[in-house]
Every structure is written in structure tokens, then in C-alpha cells.
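Most newcomers find our protein records easier to grasp once they have seen one. To make this concrete, we reproduce a full record directly below:

===
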Amino acid sequence: LGGFPHERLRAPCSLRESFANRGANANAERLRSALPCPKGLGDTRRASRRVGAKLQRKIIFQPSFIGKAPTQNNPKSKIQNCKTMQVVIALGGNALLQRGQPLEAEVQLRNITIAAKAIAELAAAHKVVVTHGNGPQVGLLALQAAAYNRVQPYPLDVLNAETEGMIGYLLEQQLYNHLPESQVVTVLTQVEVDAKDPAFNHPTKPIGPLYSQEEAEQLAAEKGWTVALDGNAYRRVVPSPKPLRIIELPTIQLLVQAGVIVVCVGGGGIPVVKTSTGKLSGVEAVIDKDLAAALLAIELNADALLLLTDVDAVYTQWGSPKAQPLHLVTPQQLKNYTFAPGSMAPKVAAACQFVNTTGGVAGIGRLEDAGRILAGGAGTMVIHS
């Protein structure tokens, strides 16, 4: 140990250590040079400098812990061993309301209670900002709005705002129950998109419940929907334009600096465009929450982005007998694979965007594995190089 206390050598970041164990010595050198350490480490010095739009982090640390497993004398969790990080957590709509589950408030509350517990465990050691998907929820609200024919159905931007309030309320309540000493607040968040985004002519974002092929084709004919295969069932798909600007970002930054746990950019945010007069106006779309989460994490200069869903990792050849999970991968390597649009493809794109822009790390995996993903023990971790 070269005269240094074991705890000091392990402290810089258990993320490197865990992935070195998973990938043996082959990944140790890559991890030593590629993974960013959190801010404020005792034995780590980090200098950050901007080159163009990219933030490059240079890390200097004691390398002796690489490849070392936790010892019996050090029972602390991997999360506790890693110093405080700024983490943006993106909860998938399917993680909050799982595939095949009835779209009922009680079911969603149970799932959000589980999610809040996972978030609280991370928030006990790190600074967290939470965002979430809303695909099942906004689709249900659209169906309910269409069922009452005495008024015109509410547009998707208004329904997005409703889901932000609904899911934000449930998350706030359950996070308070787990962390009563913490301040938690939901910010209804508008996100600007381009009115000429080609996504408006090519719907890909699945919303609402699952249908059989026969049901989907009937609804498409009756309601003028676009439907597409999502896994082994069909769902309605709507435009999902690229997020450009988070309108309430300054407010979110102030709250984060004050130590508040912020729930924001829910469902990708409320989609708005800027008119010719400079005013904001809502549009019929659902922004992909993963791409919006990446934008949020970049703007907050986060250390890590967690994209949590109902699958345990990113897989190559998903759905086939040859499917293989990816554990440690770079954006360049991910270019060699094709992923399902509207589901895993946006998560991979968001992870790559965040990592390429900031030099941070992005994890993709199951909600219940959140802590292990951040510690490097589960899911897929995307690193810069």
C-alpha cells in the first residue's frame, strides 16, 4: 500500500475498482485514465478546462487500488466509498409503470415508492437531480381526454404538464418519506424544440398502453394514430423532437446550489417552440426524456448520468438468442450497433452525448440496480475512452 492508509487509496472512486473487477486487468488502464473522479476527493486532484464546447477532465490519483476487491475489513458500501458527485437520475416511464401492469394510481404509487427508495440511497451520499419519463401516463391521459367528447381533447403539451405535476407530486411525497430532513421540489419545466424538426413528420415516441396488432390497427384507423411495434406488442407513437433549451434552467440551478433535491424536465419537459415574435407556444409532441436528461446533465455540469429503465443493461442483438449485455463501453464502440428507436436508441444516444460533451460517465440499467450501476457493479457504463 506504499505507506498510504487503505481507505485513502480506495476512496478516489470505487466505480473504477468495480469495473476493473468485472473486466479483470484488461480494463484497468482504460479506467485509470478515462473515468472522471467526483469533485472534492482527498487524494485526487482534478483540473478542468474547456476546449471548444467540450469539458476535458484530467485526473491524477494513486493507482494502487485498481483491480483490488473490497476487503472484509472495509464493509462500507461502494456508494459510501465514492465521494460526493452531482448525479442526474432519469427514471424511465416503464420503470415507474412496468410493462403489462394496469395503468392505475395505486400501482404507480407502489412503483414510485420503490424508485424513491433507490433515489434516497443515492441522495444520502450524492447531490441528485431527478427527471422521469411519462410515456404510459401521457398516453393514458390522452385516452381519457378523448373519451369525453363534449370538449376538444387537451393537446399533448398540456397533458405533459399534467404528468409532470402528477409524477412529481408522488416522487416528492415518497422522497420526503425516505429523506424527511431534505428539501424536495418539482419544477414544471418547458423545453424548447425546433418547429421544423423532422421528428414532427416521423413519429417514434411510444406512449400509452400496450395493444395487440389487431387492436392497434383498429385504433389507428379510428383515431388517425400512428402505431408501431414496441417489444412484443404495439403502442401509439407520437413526434419526439430534439430538446434544444431548458427554459427554467436558471431556477433549477439556483435550487441545486441551495442543496434542494429537484424533480424537473419530467417526460422530457413541456414541448414549446419560439414564435416569430419571440413568444413561447406549446406543440403536439412528447420530447424524449433521455435526450432531455442528457441536456440537463450537461447544463448542470454533472459528474454522472443514470438512465434507469426496466431492463438490466444495453444488449447487442436484443430479442435474439445471440443477445449479449454490454458492461463497459465507449461512444465510439456503440456506433457499431443498432438499437430500437423510441426505446433503447435514445438512451444510448443520450449517454453518448453526455459522455462526449463532459467527459463524465453514463450508466444504463434497472431502477432497482441504481446504486450498483453508479458503483460499477451492474448495468452498462459508458465512458469516454
